[in-house]
Amino acid sequence: MTEGILLCSHPQCLSEFPIIDGIPIIVSDLRNYISQNILPLLERHDLTATMESLLGDCFGPGSAFDSQRQHLSTYAFDHYADLDPEETATPPSIPGSVARLLKQGLQSLTGKKSGPVIDIGCAVGRSSFELAQEFDDLVLGVDINFSMLKVAASIMETGQITYPKRRVGITYDRREFSLPADKKRTDKLDFWVCDATALPLASESFSLAVSLNLLDCVTSPYDHLKELARVLSSKSCGIIATPYDWSANATPVGSWLGGHSQRSPYQGASEAILRSLLAGGDHPNALAELALISEQEIPWSLRLHDRSHMQYQVQMTMVQKYVST
Ligand SMILES: C[S@@+](CC[C@H](N)C(=O)[O-])C[C@H]1O[C@@H](n2cnc3c(N)ncnc32)[C@H](O)[C@@H]1O
């Protein structure tokens, strides 16, 4: 187990931030974060699949344990099941859609290709592993979900992928397999708990920022865009992919980019509102330093269980940060 405490040395700050299971937790309201995450922070990983299934039956559907297991199943399947030699998934539940999304984004990349990279909302980390194979500099995967990052950090440390694959209801099969040799370049990869709307990172520090399927999950999509722009260095690119699947559970309706107020000039169209927020856009709070480079539509799918999956059409927007004057 890798643990430690980061201490801010500023005499008027002296804030402490824990590193647990090798994952620094750097959020502004640490006390609140820790108290809201007792299960993922204290959960044990030494139980057999049989014991885990018995506990899962007892905790029952709708429990925090159940919802965490469902999330892990859905995202770990998409991120890694294409690497599982025993995976027998058949269409329409084909894993690897986030890796394909990233690949298409990287193909249309212009601008700087060296320097640190940030993967914001990386979940269980596949896109960060792919970025680490492509770039020579630091790749930092950040997410707000500790249990997702724990999967990513454990793969990085052990080269082994272990996740619960949901069959149906509260029945799961434990999947275990190795990360292939061509994905094992992890010496400059790291995973941190950070909030995408308030990144604890210096301005102008990244040469690429990736935000895959995150914009519609944060409390303030605008603040996330602002932070993405802030941490990018001049001429660097951002890849923003989103299905605009707005939900009031994740984002207050007033902060959605579109998806409401269809009587407005944009008729509630999310695509138009995102464009209006970029350089040259007519939104009063447009981010003048983020220029729109290109847009494309790409499929993205998530498996829920053996008989259910969700298919999205994601808009991928490439942006570039203007040269500072
Ligand atoms: C829809 S998932 C997408 C995950 C991954 N990028 C992919 O495409 O498979 C959204 C991710 O964003 C994370 N997230 C939500 N709010 C966040 C925030 N404020 N800061 C950082 N990550 C956040 C969630 O924990 C989740 O892992």
Explain what this protein looks like in three dimensions:
The termini are far apart. The protein has one domain: Rossmann fold, CATH 3.40.50.150. The radius of gyration is 20 Å and the shape is globular. The relative contact order is 0.14. It has helices at residues 30-36, 38-42, 49-59, 64-80, 97-107, 126-134, 146-158, 221-231, 270-276, and strands spanning 4-7, 16-20, 23-24, 117-120, 139-143, 160-168, 171-178, 189-193, 206-212, 232-242, 290-305, 308-321. The mean pLDDT is 95. A hairpin with an 8-residue loop joins strand 1 and strand 2 (16-20). The protein has 325 residues and is of the alpha/beta class. Strands 8-5-4-9-10-12-11 form a 7-stranded mixed sheet. The chain has 9 helices and 12 strands. Bound molecules: S-adenosylmethionine (SAM).
